[in-house]
Amino acid sequence: MTEGAGIHAGDLPDDLTAAEAGMWQAFRNGSVYDLSSGDAVVDDPHGGHPWGPERSVRARIICWLLLDGPPALAGRVSSLKLTGVRVTGTVELAGGTVTPYMELRGCRFDDQILLPEARFTTLRLVDCAVPRLEAARVHTEGDLHLPRCRFQNGVRLTDAHIGTDLLLNQAIVYRDRSGRSIAADGMTVGQDLQAELLESHGELSLRSAKIGVSLSLRGARLANPYARLALNAPQLTVGRTLYLTPAGVGNPLLSGTTPARGTRIQRFECRGGIRLDDGRFGDAVDLERARFGFTDDQELSLRRVQTPELRFLGDRPQRGKVVLSGARIVNLVDHAGSWPGPGSLHMGGFAYENLVPQGPFPLTRRLDWVAAATAEYNPEPYERLATVLRAAGEDEDAREVLLAKQRRRRETLPLAAKSWGYVQDWTVAYGYRPGRAAVWMAVLWAAGTLAFSHAGHPPVNPGGHPSWSAALFTLDLLLPVIDLGQVGQWQLRGGWQWLAAAMILLGWILATTVAAGATRLLRRG
Predict the structure, then answer these.
(1) What is the dihedral of CA 359, 362, 367, 371, to 10 degrees?
(2) DSSP string, 249-305
(3) CA 29 to CA 213: how far, in whole Å?
(4) 367 and 389 Cβ atoms separated by less than 8 Å
(5) Strands 265-266 and 247-248: what pairing?
(6) CA nearest to 289, candidates 338, 233, 332
(7) pLDDT tens-digit profile of 362-386?
(8) Rounded Cα–Cα distance for residues 140 and 137 (Å)
(9) What are the residue ranges spanned by the domains of the chain?
(10) How many angstroms separate the CA atoms of 299 and 272, rounded?
(11) Closest among 362, 407, 401 to 385, alpha carbons compared
(12) What DSSP designation does 213 have?
């Protein structure tokens, strides 16, 4: 029989095998065509048990059904629903429009699936073994589901358009010839992209992808020992939250909710660099309990990321770098043990408005955090931290931060300026502890009063002079801009002249440091 009017009337083609004939009739009936044996070991599509001709259908017949198949039986909706089927040859639907619903479960493909620029309503491949999925610019009105599938040579979804959800939960994907496991640059997903418990061996590339709601990599394990990046997603846009957090193990329906108490969990792990530069996230970037295995030249790069909340609550990376340069967030939720040490943290231009520490995070540790981010002196991280603390009503802590900034700056100055900095620090703590000025003044006044009470002090003008007062005389020496009428009335000789000169010098130093501190405080205000 020719592939013509008879086929469109529902007649079976002459060259179909028994398995294909059964699939043809199931397609017209809209029912599931199940060729599994009932033995879990034999039916494992990823196992090594051979499936013979009795379980095999040709890819050409599948394409025929999907693109130009027979009409449905009366009262039925045609659809391709296969279970436990081996597909021989290459499924090639490039550029085609597939109207029937398509769902394959536990199937094994001998060759790659080619779907570039094809259009589907909904496409589901569940727990299938596929050499490679080539689906650049594919378009689905509904979901694209690929949970528990294994792809030996990668998945390509470049510039794909998924109308609702893309599911990759528990999928295992190995790299293609270019080193990518999943190439999805420019992809658009209308709602959620769920890739929970995903195993990616190669680069997961999501450059300029747009996710309408949330992107969940809960419990995923990304590894790329062949190149610098395991997750390459600059200019990624996510409507709500990016989850790099734990997932419950053993739950067949991954809901994306927090695992119940007692559930075995699997953390998000990444062995390779992560690049999220210039990303936009509507709610948050969540790194709770994430683990990173970087080499010295790899990094978690969040350059110029914008999000209302960054939950930096993962394990401290032992190697590599964390880069937040130019990032802009509202709430920084973190704990002290998550941040890397000196030389491994970069925060130039990092802007945040609120600190929400989880667990103890004393100011000394926060200052160490800023110091770790500034291998060379940079005032900006100190000033940002002080601004945030002041806005939270922690004025005393803010002053401590600015004092730490001056002390750090002092180490970069030449010897003379450094010495003057030490004087300002010892006397009034660069103006951030103004009470010290009164203490120093009281100490010098008391010491001078005690000393000058034993000094000889003949009057300059025996005919008219005030009464001698060691206390007023000392105070007149210490206050360089106020004349109390004592210093010019008495004559001192020998060592007392030198002591008076020292008091004048100390008074000027104290006054200058107070003025410098006051100027700094006024500028800050």
Answers:
(1) -50
(2) SS-SS--SSPPPTT--EE--EEESEEE-TT-EESSEEE-TT-EE---TT-EEE-TT-
(3) 36
(4) no
(5) antiparallel
(6) 338
(7) 999 999 999 888 878 888 888 899 9
(8) 10
(9) 429-523
(10) 8
(11) 401
(12) S
- Say which residue the tokens 């509507």 belong to: 282
Helix axes 415-428, 395-410, angle to 10 degrees: 160
Reading the block at residue 37, the tokens are 């044996």
Please, are residues 28 and 77 in contact by the beta-carbon 8 Å criterion? no
Q: CB neighbours (10 Å) of residue 70?
A: 20
Please say whether the beta carbons of 320 and 273 come within 8 A: yes
What SS3 string covers 427-442?
HHHHHCCCHHHHHHHH
Q: How does pLDDT run across 59-113, given as a tens digit for each residue? A: 999 999 999 999 999 999 999 999 999 999 999 999 999 999 999 999 999 999 9
Q: Is 467 helix (H, G, I), strand (E, B) or coil?
A: coil
C-alpha separations of 286 from 33, 132, 144, 290, 370 in Å: 42, 31, 25, 9, 22
Alpha-carbon distances of 63 from 58, 66, 67, 80, 108, rounded to whole Å: 9, 5, 6, 10, 16
Q: Is residue 186 helix, strand or coil?
A: coil
Token pair listed for 349: 């231009």
Cβ contacts of residue 414 below 8 Å, gap of 6+? none
